[in-house]
Amino acid sequence: MSERNTLQMLADRQAIADLIHRYCRAVDRLDIPLGHSIWHEDGVADYGADVYQGPGRGVIDHICAQHRHTLQHSHQVSNLIIELDGDRAASEAYVTANLRMRHGEQLRQITVWGRYVDQWSRREGRWGLDRRISIRDFDEVRDVKAMQAHAVGRRDEFDPSYDVLR
């Protein structure tokens, strides 16, 4: 493989990984335009019949609407595998999502462990998501006691990260 091909492959892998991370940022900051930007316009999302099946950009709207009913949430991805084939790619990323909410006076945490199984394409020089299957491997709900109140992080454009990443 030539050095040019190796550099292009590395750039393509990084572009896809960046989009996966931006998806997590979008749903954690409730940043709908950012979430829409990772999808191609005709992208399709399958999060299971009990959660969401439909247009990819619509899943962002759905998730952000659901997250507004929680106190906090945080998504992390790991174990990322990306297979490239020219202007097409496939990936699998493990995801852990933690969500906090109140049930009466009790603070509860929902944790979901799953995987994003994605199909990507580069169109007009831009990588975007064509299809995502979100697989929920297992989950739990448990009562928790917060160690302290956290007032710095925000779920909107006033989060301190927006000033740094502009």
TrEMBL record:
Which SUPFAM superfamilies is this protein grouped with?
Answer: NTF2-like
Q: Which segments constitute the SnoaL-like domain?
A: 9-132
Q: Which domain of life is it from?
A: Bacteria
What the entry lists under InterPro entries is as follows: NTF2-like_dom_sf, SnoaL-like
Q: Name one Pfam family in it.
A: SnoaL_4
Signal peptide, first to last residue: none
Its recorded name reads Nuclear transport factor 2 family protein
To which species is this protein native? Solimonas terrae
